[in-house]
Amino acid sequence: MKFSSRSVLITFVIICLAIDGLWVLHKGETPKANAKEETAVDAGPVASVRVAPIKKKTISASVSVFGDVVPAPGAVRVASVPYEIRVDQVMVSAGQKISRGEPLLEVEPSPDTVLQLKQAENSFNISKQNLDHIKQLFDLKLATNTQILKAQEVFQQASSQLESLKMMGVDGKQVIRAKESGLISSVNVQEGAIVADGKPLVGVISQNRLEVRLGVEPHDAERLISGQSVSLSPVNEPIQKKITGKIRKISRAVNTATRLVDVFVSIPGNCDFLLGEYIRGRIETASSFGLAVPRSAVLPESGKFVLYTVRDGRAVKHFVQTGLESGNEVQVSGIGLKPGDEAVVLGNYELRNGMNVKVEKAQ
């Protein structure tokens, strides 16, 4: 019986030692498993991104507009004749450059004008004969001073009318010449045509008196001011002929043909833009100094904008507000942003805050 109790006791001790060993063994393996799990979480997914430095600079917003080259106010002068004429020869065409004194037209009096000249000559001769006759009667005491004065008045009127017609060139053909150098804007007559007195014959734009008329959206026109600089270039030659003009006038009405506001821009006198040439204009509407990033760095998210930077190999999420845009850059402001920070510009769509990142070198 004693032997049996001792056997039971020994068996119980062995079982307890076995249980204790299993518990210790299990306890020793658990920290290792947890360490492996933490290492796996710490590694996590790695995103490949490209970055660009955040810069502090002035951003300027601008609008691109289009228009054409037109004569400046008062630049067009017309050639005309103060009596009815017949056009014998047209010597110029629209768009032609001319020099001062260069012939434009050859004209002659119309038949009605020739008749008017004949009548003036007849009136002159008759009034002169009448005046001489009155003077003879006056010497014979057969005419009064009043009659002498009346005859002299009629004679002077006839003489003045005849002299005026001759001074205008009514007594023969004449060549109409350019009074200054410039550009022919229009030719309004044809050879052989009878043209009424005073009607415009040829339009001449004074040399270096052109400007650019641009069409601007009404909401953009409100932000422009007179004297503001405008970058101008022909649409077909945007680089070779780029110049800077100044806003001369901003119309206060919408052009019914284009539904845009006309903005007139003065250009340098030595500019070689062609009359009627199609022009592109770039006008700065606003500017601001602050942080700027490439446009691709800013992402929309739930009605807001976010931007990711890289710090210590991890992505840092920033909520930002956007400002002016110019070209490929946009102005931003947000907590924790400073010049020199690396903003993610490629691969940012897959990022999450705190995510591991690998920065690729720009190609």
Chain-wise SSE layout:
Elements: H1 2-43, E1 46-53, E2 55-71, E3 76-79, E4 85-90, E5 97-98, E6 103-109, H2 111-139, H3 145-167, E7 174-177, E8 182-187, E9 194-195, E10 202-206, E11 210-216, H4 218-221, E12 229-234, E13 243-254, E14 261-266, E15 278-294, E16 298-301, E17 304-311, E18 314-326, E19 329-333, E20 342-346, E21 356-359
Parallel strand pairs: 1-21
Antiparallel strand pairs: 1-20, 2-11, 2-15, 3-10, 4-6, 4-9, 5-8, 6-7, 8-10, 11-14, 12-13, 12-15, 13-14, 15-19, 16-17, 17-18, 18-19
Helix pairs in contact: 2-3
Describe the protein's architecture and organization.
It is rod-shaped, with a radius of gyration of 47 Å. It has three domains: 46-59 and 288-359, conserved putative lor/sdh protein from methanococcus maripaludis s2 fold; 63-72 and 209-287, Elongation Factor Tu (Ef-tu), domain 3, CATH 2.40.30.170; 76-206, RNA polymerase II/Efflux pump adaptor protein, barrel-sandwich hybrid domain (OB fold (Dihydrolipoamide Acetyltransferase, E2P)). The protein has 363 residues and is α+β, with helices and mostly antiparallel strands. The protein has a six-stranded antiparallel beta barrel with strand order 2-11-14-13-12-15. The chain has a four-stranded antiparallel beta sheet with strand order 3-10-8-5, with no helix packed on it. A four-stranded antiparallel beta sheet has the order 7-6-4-9. It has helices at 2-43, 111-139, 145-167, 218-221, and strands at residues 46-53, 55-71, 76-79, 85-90, 97-98, 103-109, 174-177, 182-187, 194-195, 202-206, 210-216, 229-234, 243-254, 261-266, 278-294, 298-301, 304-311, 314-326, 329-333, 342-346, 356-359.
